[in-house]
Amino acid sequence: MSKKTKIRRPKARLAKGFRDIEAGELRGMKRMLATIEHVYESYGFEPIETPAIEYTEALGKFLPDQDRPNEGVFSFQDEDEQWLSLRYDLTAPLARYVAENYDALPKPYRSYRAGWVFRNEKPGPGRFRQFMQFDADTVGTASPAADAEVCMMAADTLEALGIPRGAYVIRVNNRKVLDGVLETIGLDPADPTFEMQRLTILRAIDKLDRLGTEGVRLLLGAGRKDDSGDFTKGAGLGAAQIDTVMAFVEAGGANRTDVLKALEPLVAGSAQGVEGLAELAEMDTLFSAAGYDPDRICLDPSVVRGLGYYTGPVFEAELTFEAETEEGEIARFGSVGGGGRYDDLVARFRGQDVPATGFSVGVSRLYSALVALGKIEGEGAMAPVVVLVMDRERLADYQRMVIALREAGIRAEMYLGTSGLKAQMKYADRRGAPCVIIQGDDELANGEVQIKDLIEGAKLSETIEEREEWRAARPAQFSVKTDELVSAVRDVLARHGAQ
C-alpha cells in the first residue's frame, strides 16, 4: 500500500514589519488625506504620482546606509541585471521625475503626492517597513520664501485636521548653520572622513529628545553603550568641540529673534553659517508678516533631520500634547512630519543646480494622533442592510429589493451564501448590519416584508430575561408593505444616526 503524501501548506502569517489595515482605519485615513489634499490644493500645488519602484541608483546615494544596494531598501534585479528598489521615500522619485521632464515643467514646479514607502530596516513597536507619506514640494527656486511657505502650509494642514494651536509646533532650523558650526570647530569638508563624521553628528543631535543632553554628548564623543550593552561609535569630537555643538543645539527659545542672536557668535567666520542664518532671518520675517507666531512656528537648532540630502532649512511638525503609548505610559506624541531643502537631489541627474524644498506627512502616525485627540470620529460607515434569502427560487425578487435600497442611497446587499436562516442572521450580526429584510411565503402572500432592527433588538435583549418573553415580543421586528420598504429602512437608519 502506497504511503499517503502529506500536503505541504503555506502558513498564513503576516510578514515581519508589515500590517493589515482594516475598514474603519482606511475610511478615517481617506478622509484625513482628503483634508490634507484640500490644503495643498489651496496653496496651488498639483498632484503627481510616481511608481513604487525606481532604479536603485536613483535612491541609494542619499540613504543612511550606502554600502550595498539592499541596505535600507528592498531591492532586486530585473531581466537586464539592473538593480531596482522599492522607494524609500517620495522625494527621490520626485527628483527623478523632475529631472526627466525638466524642460516641459513650469518652474518653480509645485506638486504633492501620497503613497506607500518601504524601509528594509529592523521593525519595532510602531515602526513598520511599509508606511504612507503625503508630500508637497516646490522645485526650481532657491528663495527662502518657498521654505517659509511649506512651513506655513504644514501649520495650516494640522489646524485643518482639527489640531488646535498650542497642541502643535513647526520647528525650523538650517543645515547651513550647523555646517557653519562644524567649520568653526575645525572640521574640514575636504577630509575624506568628513561626510561620515557629519552624518554621525546629525544622527546624534537627532536623538536629543530620546537620549537627552548627556546621551547626545556621548554620541558626539567616543560613543555610547545602551541599556542592552550594545555600543554605538560616536563622532569622535573633543570636549571643546562638543561644547560648541551643544551650545548650538540648545540655542532654541520662545522668541525667534533671540534664537537668531544666540546663533550669531557660533557661526562667526563661516560664510556658509552666516548665509544659513540670513535665510532663517528672512523666513522669520515672512512668518511674522503672515501672522505665524512662535507658538506655531519656532526656530529650534536641535532639528537637523536624519537624511543626508538636506542642504538648507529643515523643519519638523511636532505634536505637543500627551497621549498614552502602546506600553500604557503617558508621553508627548512627537513628530508627525518633516522636510527641508534638498538642492542637490535633482542636480545629481542633470549636472546643474536645481533647488528644491518640501514637506512630508507621516500619514499613519498623524492618523494615530488624531484618534488620540478624538478628531477621527465615525470613521466606520454604517454596515449594509442585509436582505435575507428565504427561498432560493426567488433570488430575483430579493435582488430587486437590494437595488431599490441602493438607488435610494442606502448600503445594501443580498445574502450570497447557501446557509439557512440562523446562519444568515449570524452573518448579519458579524457584518454589523443595522437591520435585515425578511420575506418568506407568508410575507409574500400579504405583500409585506419583515424588517428586523438588529441594533434596537440588541438593546432590548438586555432588558428581556426569559426566552419565551423574547419570542413572544419579537423586539424591534415589524412588518411593512413591500412598496414601503425604502422609507421604513430609512426610518431605522435615522433612528441610529445614519445619514
Automatic annotation (TrEMBL):
One of its GO terms (cellular component) is cytoplasm. L-histidine binds at D89, L90, T91, R119, Q133, D137, R305, Y309, Y310. Signal peptide: none annotated. Residues 31-384 form the Aminoacyl-transfer RNA synthetases class-II family profile domain. Coiled coil: none annotated. It is found in: Cytoplasm. Its EC number is 6.1.1.21. GO terms for biological process: histidyl-tRNA aminoacylation. Keywords: Aminoacyl-tRNA synthetase, ATP-binding, Cytoplasm, Ligase, Nucleotide-binding, Protein biosynthesis. It catalyses: tRNA(His) + L-histidine + ATP = L-histidyl-tRNA(His) + AMP + diphosphate + H(+). GO terms for molecular function: ATP binding; histidine-tRNA ligase activity. PANTHER family: HISTIDINE--TRNA LIGASE, HISTIDYL-TRNA SYNTHETASE. Homodimer. Belongs to the class-II aminoacyl-tRNA synthetase family. This is Histidine--tRNA ligase. It comes from Kaustia mangrovi. The lineage of its organism: Bacteria, Pseudomonadati, Pseudomonadota, Alphaproteobacteria, Hyphomicrobiales.
